[in-house]
Write a structure and sequence with these properties.
about 140 residues, 5 strands, binds zinc ion
Length: about 140
């Protein structure tokens, strides 16, 4: 019975393998992906980007968008609530999620306030400042 509730009437082929940490059932996305931005070379280096590359990227831009990780809001049928998660893509169809800590929200595009309200001006500002670099996966840091 419990499993049926999780799997009802869904197009399974389109669903990503993202599961509730509490219940292990599929989560339904209720938001778009909010991209994350690195704001310092140090920040990139923490993600495995080499020092030279990190410095080079920040020589031409003040923020660098991160590929392979983002913030997204999900609904769990069993929690009966939505939760913001930090999603890390770990493989072709594999994801690792953890509840989004507050400091990550400030790195997200479409910046979300603690109340869950996007601030449009901040989003626009960040988009304008961001470089088009979104190929962190080229550096093989997402495993
Ligand atoms: Zn749940």
């Amino acid at each position: 019975m419990v499993q049926r509730r999780c799997d009802r009437n869904r197009n399974r082929s389109k669903r990503r393998a993202i599961y509730c940490p509490e219940h292990g059932c599929h989560l339904d996305s209720v938001s778009r992906k909010h991209r994350l931005y690195a704001e310092s070379a140090q920040h990139l280096r923490e993600r495995g980007v080499g020092r030279r590359t990190a410095l080079l990227l920040f020589a031409t831009a003040t923020t660098v968008s991160l590929d392979g990780e983002w913030l997204e809001c999900f609904w769990c049928d069993q929690c009966q609530e939505t939760t913001w998660y930090h999603v890390l893509k770990t493989g072709e169809r594999q994801y690792k999620i953890s509840p989004a800590p507050r400091d990550l929200w400030q790195q997200a595009s479409g910046v979300i306030t603690v109340d869950g309200n996007p601030t449009v001006s901040e989003f626009t500002r960040r988009q304008a400042r961001a470089t088009n670099f979104n190929g962190i996966k080229d550096f093989n840091i997402i495993r």
